[in-house]
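ok so i was messing around last nite and threw this chain in just to see what happens. nothing serious, just curious
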Amino acid sequence: MNTKLFLRTITLAAVLAGCTSSNGENSPYVMPYATPEELAKRQSPVPLLPPDSSGNIVFNLQYPSGTKDGGMITSPLDKNSNFKNKYFSKYTDKNNTDWIRISLDASDQGKSPNGSSVRVELTQKTNWAFKGTHSFSYTFFGNCSNVSEAKFTVGQFLARKLPNSNGSATDRPLCRIEVEQGKIVAKIRNYYEADKVDKINGDPIEIELGKWIPSKETTIKIQTEDKKLTIFRDGEKKGSTTFTEKVRSDERNYFKAGIYYQNKDSPQIFTEIFLKNLKIE
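result:
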């Protein structure tokens, strides 16, 4: 093994050790993307994704193109897929538990036309409406190179595109679970119309979910019963709110999980989030 590759291997080993340590709250290291050699050793995490009743995978993967003008890439995932890349791979911890590993540098290139910054997210393929009960739950841990400044979404649900008065359309985030400078917060919005301009309140409703200790496992559940939204952390109800009549009951909603930076100045922050037990009901 040459010296350069040896040093890189040592660095990656330190990263993985930091991800599972008990004191990773303000880790000083900078985590790189996997080298081609390291990525070649990793496996696809597709078998860890939940299937529907027919055995079909219920998520697509969205990730940056890597170029400023290339936008986002969407990769359909199915049970026969062996898909992996530097953003999306499998990680097995010291207890032999398998996790979906999502990696993203905030300064990477390629975002959606309406996006404020880069993201890597698993996106639900099917739609649901505010009728009956729907929920999305998952367990995650992670780490990043600058916990005190990092702001990113780790889970959310959105309403799919509906035309506004100008004929344009954009997906509307109704609930985001955000890691924000060392804490976890649910941010909920009630929209009047399909565009993002007319809101019932200028600021989102916020539900505090407690401190984020990067290396500690946390379970999040987002649940809707008709238009009542309830957020749970580690099985404990943290808060609820009810969407107003201005949020349509027949909207086509969908869940997401991953990393979506909210730092609009794209600082030099590298984050890895590890997910397991994704469940849609």
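not much to say yet. Confidence is low (pLDDT under 50) at residues 1-29, 194-200.
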